[in-house]
Amino acid sequence: MTLNNYPALFSRFKTALVILLATASLQVSDAYAQGRQVKYLSGKDNRTNTMWDFYCTGGRKSGYWTKIAVPSCWEQQGFGSYNYGRDYKTYGKNFRFADEQGIYKLNFQVPQAWKNMDVYIVFEGSMTDTEVKINGKAAGEKHQGAFYEFKYDVTNKLKYGTNNLLEARVSKMSADASVNNAERLADYWVFGGIFRPVYLAAYPKQHINRIAVDAKANGDFKMQVYPEHIKQNLQWVAQISDAKGKVVKSVSGTVKPADSVVSIATTVSNPLLWNSETPNLYKVNIALKSAGKIIHQHSEKFGFRTIEIRKGDGIYLNGVNIKMKGINRHSWWPETGRTLNDDIQLQDVKIMKEMNMNAVRMSHYPPDKKFLEICDSLGLYVLDELAGWQKAYSTAAGKKLVKEMVIRDLNHPSIIFWDNGNEGGTNKELDQYFTQYDFSKRPVIHPHHRPGNAFNGIDCNHYEDYYSTKNILADSNIYMPTEFLHAQDDGGAATGLADFWDLHWKSKRSGGGFIWALVDEGIVRTDQNGIIDVNGVNAPDGVVGPHREREGSFYAMREIFSPVHITLKDLPANFSGSIPVENRFHFTNLSQCTFNWELIDYRKPNDQNGGYTVKKKGVALSPSVAPLASGNVQINLPADWKSYDALTLSAYDPHKDLVYRWVWKNNNERLLNNVISFAGKDQVKVTETDSTLLLKAGSMGITFNKKNGQIVTMTNNSGDPFLFSGGPMLVSGSSAFKDIKHRQENDGELVEVSYTGDLKYARWKIFNSGWVSLDYEYELKGNYPYAGITFNYPENYVLGAKWLGRGPYRVWKNRLQGVVDDVWSNTYNNTQTGSAPWIFPEFKGYFTNITWMELNTVQGKFMIAAKEPDLYVRLFDFYGLSGVKPFPALPSGNLSFLDAIPPLGTKLALNIDGNTSKLGPNSEPNHINGTTRRTLYFYFGQLEQEGKGKQNFTRPVKDELF
């Protein structure tokens, strides 16, 4: 999928990025005009690194001076050694982390014009302990903590108008044991190096150091301004402007030499409020003036919004009860680790918005500033987190880092909570410092993995099952799990989510929750020929791959989290165009959305283009349905609408971005009318021996084993052998062969195989045309992982598949969402979700609602078609979760036609008979009590296209629907 598949979406995000970049450029250019100047000593991101002198003390490329790109993680530049934070668990007590140091040097010049200014050197992030010298003198005390912006006043250490020397010694392991405990003994890759930009910032002697904004939904605006080195009374002027640049408020006053902070309070009438659906931003500009001339000014964007935790009730934004549809996000890129660029930041926000999410948790450290700016502008609720993975910072170390984190990030309206550590990595003594430094007094929460640790009225307990979640939601606290449904491999994430989300959505005291996690943390190993390493089962936890390759859960979450909530499965016989809809927006009326419908016809198997053609289309009247209310979308369909293959409905939000597209397919028998042909010129010929029964229609043939009733082999319409064999066999239940009979009928030859046990019969018929039908019946009573019949075909012979059914992704019993009916095609791949080479969609798996499927093999093509709806086709051998024993177990055979398939658990719930069922009703085994009858059709050979000869289908999987 490319951005070009989403014209409106791409346009919106592209515009946002242009605005952000333009704003950044404007701030720099304005700074020059207003007396503030910035000089980058490093590159600005992973695409614009600057080379510094570098000496590594251990590991690869160590013991000599060379060059390194800054910013970077030095392992990705070929230095030192790799460590995954949990290596101590893998290798035991005697394991020692690589503790190499990196020594950096850079010669740089400072403009002579800066001599009468205050100059700071700023490090946006350096792992882990950093000691800085300027011209041989220490810039300040050693900084300890990897993910936090820090700066030193180097005014008196610089030589102006000539060369200067910067030296930085960066220690991978901190001298403070609590910093290592909080940051490096963690369940993620740990690196070394200056991984975010470094720059000099020069200010006039009298300047504004920073500002802190608190803007409420009622229009109340408060601001703290922190002036520096004020020598005489100066005038300040503050102007608030809206997104169009219109000044909506202007206030002024005087700052005196003794003032360490200036407090400003005013009111803006009827402000446009900030929330995830309408992220309205304002800008405040505060200027210092001397004799009417601006000597310095500072600008910040902000939003008017009020956050409340109403204990025992819910989380409220601007007076509206909201729920987090969230996910955990590491700052990550496989080639460069934690050194990113603005496009990656934007892409990640875009991915979450495409999944209809409204929230993100920063795991497990503060992100790059640009990511927060994009969350502000596009609308995501953010949980900004102090590091602390199961172990906490000491109070002495932590209070400095809390200050750095809060002061940097406090003006972002997207941040609604501060997270004090993770899963027991909480030092409660640090709570007070969040409040001390955050002027707007956002709530602090404690993400944890044990019950009974609620804080500020919110229980964040991780990885509860469906039923314990239900109990917690009935308790007195608000429940908002900051991690749930662990997404290792293909498990978790959207598997089980429909049940969980329905439970959360309908529970008054739910605050929503955050899936673990967004990205598979696969790192390109510069010490292993560039393989992408996910550290076994530790890091393949994402719903997208390292380069943001979409997995099936991505699309399923898009449907489950859709704020336009439609659950209609099939169009009723008396359908009049009315589709029930629930509005799951918090702030948007459905009248602000757009609904488009189409009547489509699917292309036939022998059409090389695949897909569908639009026959008629229109716009449905957008219903006036208030947030959290229900109503109907009314489509005014033409009288002949039933003569088309399918009806589609697409919903677009007020920004014209696609929310979701639903498809309702016509019945299978109608869809097969122009696919299957039973009439043929020649009578079926029968050849019988003591052990085999051979039926042939022209060159097409089918051979049965008379001793067990199973297929021995096929011949295609060229007379060549086809190794489809070994069935039908029941995948659940028992059966024993009884006898086999055959008889001639007008249009072909019928073979009836009877059984004792759960499989009652299998009636094969080869028609004069060469098509083969299979009617079968079985009866089951009990709980089963799967149900249906199975055959064998050599997987290594398969080249690809094309099908009419839901796709393009595979499904599980508890993850049926995110796939729609269309004609899809996919070439063979052996992808195991979460592992290289991340080719999606996976070729192998369970595929649903199949009308017909054509397999392309080295022996030719063969077709399977279903008379009845809701057929699952199992394609070959695969698993959902890796481990000592891959999970879940597969049916016998390797090409199966099923009426029930298994659910998939999570890393923390692997047993289908035990923990998986605890993920909710749809995660239980299949409860079957009754008889199932089906008719399948087979054609072993390439279908002819009248007047055009044979066709070859190689079109890749169609993705534009998503």
Automatic annotation (TrEMBL):
Domain Glycoside hydrolase family 2 immunoglobulin-like beta-sandwich: 208-305
Residues making up the signal peptide according to the UniProt record: 1-33
Molecular function GO labels: beta-galactosidase activity; carbohydrate binding
One CC-aspect GO term: beta-galactosidase complex
Signal is among the record's keywords: yes
Known catalytic reactions: Hydrolysis of terminal non-reducing beta-D-galactose residues in beta-D-galactosides
Keyword Calcium appears in the UniProt entry: yes
InterPro entries: Bact_Beta-galactosidase, Beta-gal/glucu_dom_sf, Gal_mutarotase_sf_dom, Galactose-bd-like_sf, GH, GH-type_carb-bd, Glyco_hydro_2, Glyco_hydro_2_cat
Keyword annotations: Calcium, Glycosidase, Hydrolase, Signal
Domain Glycosyl hydrolases family 2 sugar binding: 67-204
A Pfam family matched in the record: Glyco_hydro_2_C
A single BP term in Gene Ontology: lactose catabolic process
Family note: Belongs to the glycosyl hydrolase 2 family.
Name assigned to this protein: beta-galactosidase
Species this protein is from: Mucilaginibacter aquatilis
Lineage: Bacteria, Pseudomonadati, Bacteroidota, Sphingobacteriia, Sphingobacteriales
